[in-house]
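Side project, low priority. Logging it here so it doesn't get lost.
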Amino acid sequence: MCKKSINNIIKKTKKRFDKKCFNVELERKIKENQVNYQVEYLMEKNEDPCKKNDHKYAMRVYWENNYGNSKYCIIIGQNPSLSRSIKKSEYHVDDTNWNIIKILRKKGYKGYIMLNTFSTINPSGSSINAPASQDNSTNVEISKYIIKKMRHLDIIIACTQNNYVAEDYIDMLNCKFKSRLKKMVYNNVVISHFSTIVLNRNKILKNIKNIQIIKATIEKTNNNCKIKF
């Protein structure tokens, strides 16, 4: 993926869909090592990634500047969580994304683009139980535009199989981008939830080298739309 495409994708999407984007430089420790990373948010105008029920359409996270030769991917989550404040520094990614950073850095990636089947910020994905009542069309169109533009990037599914996902979003992925879908597996079990509690319970963060990224197929399981791999 060329440097120009990676650097400008959020800005191009902002212009096309009349949204806002902003970039923040952050730092946080992984064990004793300081990690400098940047996050670029794509949102509705006058909305904020730290506010519940606002809309976050995309998030580019990157930790190295060598974009021309960088290894990137697209991550698909269920819905965005609240950004965090750490030591008076705002707009840090939530713990789920921090765990994704840990894994992808170990796997040689330099950054990723985070998309979600829903755009509404909610710290509890399990509370989303009426997806049919949400107008998700803008989120689907924005994701489709970004995924199409980033046509060389793998799409890694990071949705828990226990929570509801957006049916129109899953239909879009299966219709347009089925051949690019990937999943992470550990000891032949799909990692579908990246919370610290789940990953530590299974000792995954201590054994990142044993995680595999392999081809995935996803299907809907019922009318309210949960997925299975």
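Brief comment: The chain has a mean pLDDT of 87.
Revisit when time allows.
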